[in-house]
Design goal:
By secondary structure, the chain is α/β, with parallel strands linked by helices. Among the domains are: about 50-170, Alpha-Beta Complex (Conserved hypothetical protein from pyrococcus furiosus pfu- 392566-001, ParB domain), CATH 3.90.1530; about 170-275. The protein is about 50% helix and about 15% strand. Residues about 5-15 have low confidence and may be disordered.
Length: about 350
């Protein structure tokens, strides 16, 4: 009987089991392999989409170089992020030095690898100072959440809300950022700015911020430590400048004359101004009495005030002293002088 011919070729090679001794493994079926690759690719796409979504929605923390952050992207609601003399800022430096950054800042993508700072100016400044001080790489970057505000108003609102929650702004700083946002064209009016930026505040609080707007329009950035300006002092100043237009000029000159070097000195200056403006008026000095009137029909004579309250007039060969200053003490001095002159 003739032997059957064994199957050979590609199909036989594909179906034949692998030789264990060769160390090879059985090839998967083409359909199974394609299905597996498709499943892996789909999983990678899902992960990539989730990461992109988390990044765009601000759920993914980024590590960005400090020099890629533009702090001037928004007008800041504080004049200064802080100094070592500020206990709160000093505590922030100590915390970052010991534990690193725990809370991310918020930024917006400006394109070309640049990011605009929304909130976290104090943390960013503290990291920059620590990097300059130590040169350590851990202070050369900042943890940040990427935000996509739908408008400039949304960006300003995010900045204000962050500071309201974390540290709180003084009434003067709140009024300042509202005015600055209007100047930048973000809001059409201060009323709209107040209603948007401080929408969660009570009506009474917004009213006080509105009062401080008058004060900001008067003093502007002449106030060097607005974070320390108390509500009581500020409202007293508002009452003064609203009731007297000249007080606005006097207040600016008062601050210019003696620039404050720390918050305590500035508060003392402002309280001194309040005291001077609210002190009771000084009684006017009595008017200088007029020269005695001459009797009708008397001979004409010249009258001169030779000293305060003492009048001298001459009629013919006679000299006459009169007025409120001619009292017994004056007479005694005059007589003593005449006797001394006669003896000479």
């Amino acid at each position: 009987m003739a032997k059957r011919k064994r199957l050979g070729g590609p199909l036989q090679d594909h179906l034949a089991p692998s030789d264990p001794a060769s160390g090879g493994s059985a090839s998967s079926a083409p359909i199974a392999r394609i299905a597996g690759e498709t499943s892996v690719n789909a999983a990678f796409d899902e992960v990539r989409q989730e990461l992109d979504s988390a990044r765009s929605e601000g759920r993914l923390v980024l590590r960005l170089p400090l020099d890629k952050i533009e702090t001037a992207w928004l007008i800041r609601d504080r004049l200064d992020p802080g100094t070592e003399d500020d206990p709160d800022f000093a505590a922030l430096l100590d915390s970052l030095r010991a534990h690193g950054q725990r809370s991310p800042i918020e930024v917006a993508d400006m394109g070309d690898g640049r990011y605009g700072l929304i909130s976290g100016w104090r943390r960013l400044t503290a990291l920059a100072r620590l990097h300059a001080e130590t040169g350590e790489a851990r202070f050369a970057t900042v943890l940040a959440l990427l935000r996509r505000p739908d408008s400039a108003q949304g960006a300003y609102l995010a900045m204000v809300e962050e500071n309201e929650i974390r540290l709180g702004l003084s009434y003067y700083e709140r009024a300042r950022i509202a005015a600055k946002a209007v100047e930048a064209g973000v809001y059409p009016s201060t009323k709209t700015a107040l209603q948007s930026l401080f929408a969660t505040a009570s009506r009474a609080k917004r009213s006080k911020i509105g009062s401080f707007l008058t004060l900001y329009e008067t003093m502007g950035d002449f106030v060097r430590f607005p974070q320390a300006l108390t509500e009581r002092v500020g409202l007293s100043l508002v009452k003064i400048v609203e009731g007297n237009a000249g007080a606005q000029t006097r207040l600016r000159r008062h601050l210019e004359a003696a620039p404050a070097k720390d918050p305590e000195v500035e508060q003392t200056l402002l309280e001194a101004f309040i005291a001077s403006e609210t002190a009771p008026p000084v009684p006017a000095a009595p008017a200088t009495p007029a020269a005695p009137k001459r009797a009708a029909g008397s001979t004409s004579r010249a009258t001169t005030e030779i000293s305060p309250g003492v009048f001298l007039d001459q009629s013919g060969g006679a000299l006459r002293l009169s007025g409120p200053g001619v009292d017994s003490a004056f007479r005694a001095r005059l007589e003593a002088w005449l006797r001394d002159a006669a003896q000479d």
